[in-house]
Amino acid sequence: MRPLRILSILLFLLIWEIAALIVALPQLFPTPVDVIIALKDLLVAPGPAETVWAGELMGNTIISLWRVIVGFSIAAISGVFLGIIIGYWQKARDLLEPVIEIMRPIPPLAWIPLAILWFGLGFKPAVWVCALVSALVGCAL
Questions:
Q1: Distance, CA of 81 to CA of 79 (rounded, Å)
Q2: Residue 71 burial (C-beta neighbours within 10 Å; 0-12, 13-18, 19+)
Q3: 22-78: per-residue pLDDT in tens?
Q4: Mean predicted confidence (pLDDT) in 68-93
Q5: 93 touches 86 (CB < 8 A)
Q6: 14-18, 57-61, 80-84, 108-112: range with lowest mean pLDDT
Q7: What is the residue extent of each domain of the chain?
């Protein structure tokens, strides 16, 4: 790494530290040291008898990754199945292609409120949004 890049990062951190100390509102504008300590607490949690466990951030990351894997798997399996059907039968293509073309331009974030309304909060809406978005993006390729 070039020395000027390292210097610019250190200068940014120094300005941040000074500004945070001047403002003196740690809940709204913490210092870089406070942010690093909070990140360590999120990543690593102390366990019983001198052991170290994964913190809250790692647990939530694993849960989110599982939702994405399940959603993408549903999209891949259904996409291959529908792709074979659409490829072999013209009537299936005529029936499904307009629906796919209408749904494809809708932004992925727009599906989230609908998923919450239809499925509530939790695992189902997250998997449904992942599956739908993966399937629609896969159709574009």
A1: 5
A2: buried
A3: 988 888 889 999 999 888 888 877 666 666 666 778 778 888 899 999 999 999 998
A4: 91
A5: yes
A6: 57-61
A7: 3-54, 58-140
DSSP 8-state code for residue 45: E
Distance CA 22, CA 73 (A): 51
Where does residue 88 rank: exposed (0-12), middle (13-18), buried (19+ CB within 10 A)? exposed
**Calpha distance 93→128 (Å, rounded):** 23
Query: Residue 29: what are its φ and ψ, rounded to 5°?
Result: -145, 80
What Cα–Cα distance (Å) separates residue 112 from each residue in 20, 107, 127? 36, 10, 11
Per the CB < 8 A criterion, the answer to whether 43 and 106 are in contact is: no
Return the structure tokens found at 40.
């360590």
pLDDT band at 141 (very low <50, low <70, confident <90, very high): very low
Tokens standing for 18? Answer: 């000074």
CA dihedral 28, 32, 33, 39 (to 10 degrees): 80
Alpha carbons within 13 A on the beta-carbon side of 114: 9
Coil, helix or strand for 121?
coil
